[in-house]
Amino acid sequence: MALAVSATACHQGFQLKRYTTNEDLFKAGLREYQRKKWDNAVAAFEKLTIELPARDSLLSRSFWYLASAHGHRDEYLLAAQSFSRLVESFPDDTLADDAALEAARSYKRLWRKPSLDPSYGETALATYQTMLGLYGDTSPLAAQARKEVAELETWFAIKNYDAGMYYFRRRAYDSAIQYFRYVLDHWPDSPKARDASLRLVEAFKQIHYREDASEMCASLRRKFTSDIDVRRICLGVPDTPIPTASTTPTPSTLPTPPPRPNPQSAPRS
Question: Theoretical Cys-Cys bridge with 212: which of 60, 69, 176, 204, CB 3.0 to 4.6 Å?
């Protein structure tokens, strides 16, 4: 069905039936690709990926151009799937590491902003990790892949921080603490880690978790010596907590929060 739809989408000047050999069809598809006739390119390379023998030298290139043409049509899911097929079928091909990275990027493009469902972001992260696992020691693209993983993880940190703020604004401090701690535990080097630490101090102060507030402020003062916000929020909070007759709850004994979204799935405010 997909092939039929693609074939009918061809411009009048490009007809698949004109090309009687796979080699001729590949050359024609490549011409259409270079002319940025993405519909025609998709039709040609999609037909080739179906009809070429598994060991044909043109098959990996057909997957590549099919995926790339889908990407140019903003069909990122189809692009990711075709790039992944190249990696799965030809893991030792010279294009395999490129295709693995492009598959991850295609999934990443489907997660358009942190506030949206992160499912495609999670798939993108897994695909980046697969790429690094397969080619991290040999590919010149590995450094760029690691940079893009860090960017993706920053979005996850933002999403979970925003989820914490949803509860923080509603004074559901125990639930907010869960999210802010999740940010620190999973993305301690992200830009949102500092903000999550500050909100933790404020939450601890609101529910009188003095020991936790002291520990967090001590950590913040070491990391952000001259930070104005750290000085303001930690004002009056000693690095060493003042002993009290009662036991201050620790992170391991924090009360169970009310039902809430799973981490990485922030509610709408």
Answer: 204
